[in-house]
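Budget justification note: compute hours in this period were largely spent on complex prediction jobs such as the one shown. Inputs:
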Amino acid sequence: MNFTEELKSLKDQVSFDGRFEPPSDFNNMVIAGMGGSGIAGKIFSEMYDDVPVLSLDDYHVPGYVNDKTVFIAMSYSGNTEEVITSTDEALKRGAHVYAVSSGGKLSEMIKDTLEIPSGLQPRSSLGYMLMPLINTFLQYDDDSVERTISLLDRLDTDNEMQKTMASEIIDGERIPVIYGLSPYRAVAYRWRTQFHENSKILAFSHYFPELDHNEIIPLKSTYRKDLFKFYVLTGGREERNDRRVRVTEDVTGAELRKIEPLGDTLLEKIFYLIHFGDYLTFHLAKLRGVDATDVSTIEELKKKL
Amino acid sequence: MNFTEELKSLKDQVSFDGRFEPPSDFNNMVIAGMGGSGIAGKIFSEMYDDVPVLSLDDYHVPGYVNDKTVFIAMSYSGNTEEVITSTDEALKRGAHVYAVSSGGKLSEMIKDTLEIPSGLQPRSSLGYMLMPLINTFLQYDDDSVERTISLLDRLDTDNEMQKTMASEIIDGERIPVIYGLSPYRAVAYRWRTQFHENSKILAFSHYFPELDHNEIIPLKSTYRKDLFKFYVLTGGREERNDRRVRVTEDVTGAELRKIEPLGDTLLEKIFYLIHFGDYLTFHLAKLRGVDATDVSTIEELKKKL
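Corresponding output:
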């Protein structure tokens, strides 16, 4: 599958009906995953708050994990060392452990593994990772899923705007900085990492309203300000934060390019914003003449560790 | 108090014996605070994991907050709108609410408020905010507290190295990027925000091992790589992460300046790293000829909101 086909597979992944069978009486949740396999947990932790949800991207399992914990291990390869280490510990603690992977050690370790198709880049499997969380703990009606698929299809068909935006980045060799409003903080981080992996450039992210208490100062007066290109993922949960975006622009004079999600439900909006960033970073890779699928640096690291 | 005196007051703050009186049967904790008043909760959430701890830097209170929640509101001024909003909601949910502030609305709203001295910048009151959390939920022996004070005093007396490092940033108008290892992720973020508020320049942060799954790629091959100055706060909980730092340097060819904390206990190490960053960013402000205490951009924003 080439990378364009990978991108286009996202809309099919939204129909994935995998789900977990958690016990009725858990009181906290840990979703372990690194990089492209960790982003689903980070996004989900902003969508669901009936119990505390930790997106775990390290080796260390918190002391509170026990038999009241739902622990979901996500690793596309099934062999990510941080996830294997933490999952092993979670099993010892008696947590209810589930997994999503395309194979590897993880599916041998965990009986309740949702097996997903192999052959993708881990970061291109976000739908397969996110939908089981949504299907199990949130549920959206079929209409919302259908509309999400339409929105993604629309981006697959027409992404000229993202191409134009990519050319604005490459022209001045700009450094993208993406700001998210709740519940799009993790989507802003997703954009950052797609710039890393697809476009091979450094990019950064932060979020409102927190940045109004610190980053707003250099937004006004940093050196090299023209080098940066600022994006804000708007239309979040609190209208107050949208007002903050406008006043922040006013006070700092910084140009914050606002990306307003299409769609009615959170499901549509989140997938729209995700896919918007997918195409932006993919076009930037093409314009830079780099291979969006090349992750040899990560492979070399894993070999040498 | 001038800013040098503010910095020097940190070592006295470590002796602050304020503490909360939480109930015995809580099962999760939320620490609400923004910017300079939010950093204590972020740091603490990496030190303590007997129950899930959320560092809340937004308006929205998670659905799970109820009478089994310890909710600690931190606002130096006592008037931060996000914190007032979330605290109000936490009270309605029946949470056990405590506060730390130097006055304002918060101390009127919350009977159990630890009043701390006024007259500091919020970010200079980190000791007053962090120590009550440590005193209540972690406890360190007096020796460790004494050694922490000595380490801070040492930095107050000799910070020539931080001045030299600041000059390396200003010379090329570099962009600092700080990487933290657990449990120094939030300290890396603290450095970032001190660059923002003290030095008035954009700076960014990320953490190991997560960055080995994404940011490592542009660390090798981004454009404008020479513009950045990378720091790693090392000597964390997992030796495996220290190995990752070395291999990441090897694979990417990026120069990662390692900052190794002095001290034996986590208390000493964390305060040492914090104060190291305080002086680095303060010297950078002086070298840039900007006023480290000037936060007029934030004040203007608050007025216009």
